[in-house]
Structure formats: C-alpha cells, structure tokens
Write a structure and sequence with these properties.
The chain is of the alpha/beta class. Helices cover 41% and strands 19% of the residues. It contains 8 helices and 7 strands. The chain has a 5-stranded parallel beta sheet with strand order 3-2-1-6-7, sandwiched between helices. A two-stranded antiparallel sheet has the order 4-5. α8 links the parallel β6 and β7. The radius of gyration is 21 Å and the shape is globular.
Length: 213
C-alpha cells in the first residue's frame, strides 16, 4: 500500500466575468440626450424643447407617463427626419468635443477590467449612435443601447427597440449572453433605471464613481 501512488485530476474552471456599465450619470458627469440636443440646437433650443414637453416631463416624474414615451417624443422633435449620415456625424462630433464628461475613475475601471480579461458591456438608455463614439479605440467593448429606426436613409424619430431602461437592460444583456450560469456579472449604475440590472448582478456598485471624478 505504501508503494501505491494516487493520481487525481483537478480541473479548475475559470468563469467568464462580464462588467456591465450604465453610461449616463455612471460613466459621465451629465446627461447625453440633453447634451446632444444642446450641441445640435444650442441652449435656447434645448430650453425650448424642455418647455414644450414640460407637462409630459412632470407626469413622468410622478410616474404617470413612461420615460420611454417622453424620450421618443423629444428625440423625434429634435432629430426626426435627419439624414442618417448627418446624425452619425453629429454624434461623432459631440463625443469628440465633450469627451471630458467621462469620469476619469470610471474609465480607469473599464481599463482595469479589460486588462484582467473581463468582457465590458455598456448598457445604456441612450442612443447607441452617440454612445459608441465615446469609446473610439475600445473595439472589444460592446455597446447596448436604444436603437433608432431609419427609413430611406433618414431617421423616422422612432425606436426599433424598447427604451433600454430598467428591466430592458437585463433583457438586452441576456440577448447577448443568455447562459447566466456561464459568467459572473459585475454591474455599475447610478439611478432607478439601473435597479434591475444591479439586482441581477453577482457584484453591484451604485454611484461608484460619483465622488472620484
């Protein structure tokens, strides 16, 4: 018996880690929908849009009108009918001129996640077209946001997905990664629109970067 050698195979399974970041408020210091409108129409134009929609905005605040419906109406008023090429150019220009709204420590967190081999996904209620240019040079990052409808090379002012907010964030993430047991999820958010995503995660960070710049 003393001469017997026992062999055992030890298999170490390394689970993939996915880091899901909200965009507006979590990685940025300001709301990018309002920023895009101001960039396109100026401050007077932005104030005019907000004033025009103020009754619906008030109803939304008290929970009597959906966030997504207000957003679609505002988007349609500001960008409906615009050529897709012109809109995409506007989005790239906005990101280039306002790159400073990104929180330094938020981007550092993303860099660290990528370095350790994690998959990074930006899950945002904002329009994908203007979120994506903020991550120019980060080709491995996936952008999951609200998608816009186009027709004959122009924006219809409508969305082809649900507003990527609340439970929709979880649904869209599961479209990309349906096998929930195959990965560990780390989520970062800052508002009620992120509650479901944070609750769905194995590790959650709320307003992680607010006081860090």
């Amino acid at each position: 018996m003393g001469g017997d050698v026992f062999h055992s195979d030890i298999h170490i399974i390394v689970m993939m880690e996915i880091c899901a970041f909200d965009f507006d408020g979590t990685l940025t210091r300001s709301d990018t929908l309002l920023g895009m409108i101001r960039h396109h129409r100026g401050m007077a134009g932005l104030l005019g849009v907000l004033l025009w929609h103020s009754p619906l905005l008030l109803l939304m605040k008290v929970g009597l009108y959906s966030n997504g419906k207000v957003k679609r109406k505002v988007f349609d008023m500001c960008f409906g009918g615009m050529a897709v090429a012109d809109f995409d150019n506007l989005c790239r220009e906005y990101a280039a001129k306002h790159h400073g709204i990104l929180r330094t420590n938020g981007m550092r967190c993303i860099d660290n996640a990528l370095r350790r081999g994690s998959k990074v996904v930006i899950v945002s209620a904002s329009i994908e077209n203007w979120v994506r240019p903020f991550f120019h040079g980060y080709e491995s990052i996936e952008i999951v946001g609200t998608k816009i409808e186009t027709e004959d090379g122009k924006l219809t002012g409508r969305f082809i997905t649900e507003n990527c907010y609340g439970g929709e964030k979880v649904a869209r993430l599961l479209e990309l990664y349906p096998d929930r047991k195959a990965y560990r999820l780390v989520a970062y958010g800052d508002s009620r629109g992120d509650r479901e995503l944070l609750a769905f995660a194995d590790e959650r960070h709320y307003k992680e970067f607010d006081k860090q710049g």
